[in-house]
Known about the structure:
There is one protein chain. This protein is of the alpha+beta class. 47% of the residues lie in helices and 18% in strands. It is built from five helices and five strands. A three-stranded antiparallel sheet has the order 1-2-3. Strand 2 and strand 3 form a beta hairpin. It is elongated. The chain starts with a helix and ends with a helix. The mean pLDDT is 87.
Amino acid sequence: QGEYMEDRLVIDDDLRSSVDSWIGDERFQLGYSLRVETDRQNGRRNLLLVNAYGMATSIEHVGYGVSQLLPIVAQAVLGREQLIVIEQPELHAHPKLQAELGDLLLAATDEPLKKQFIVETHSENVLLRIMRRLRASHEDAEDHQE
């Protein structure tokens, strides 16, 4: 359900880096990067999203879609050989981001993560991206057999 995702991202540098590569300019192009800062008053480490202008904000103060997407990305890149159930991951995501979400799901099913997903979606963009990538990989495999 993602309730501890923020805490895990604060303490796990590798996970934060993996999630950052998906949400940053490389994949989802959300325009944010992840950074951890220590609060001077209470010493607590906080996860912040930093935009291209260097302005930092907490997850609670960005769009609802971003806060809903982060746990999905974190779970997709965390651990190996898990079954993950996701309900409507495309909610509050624009069509291009929905398609990129299909790429995330496919990437997580491959080596070394080998995840399995049960996804309830109404997004044609997610489904079309997955079908397109599967068709392309099947055609590549056929080309190599000839």
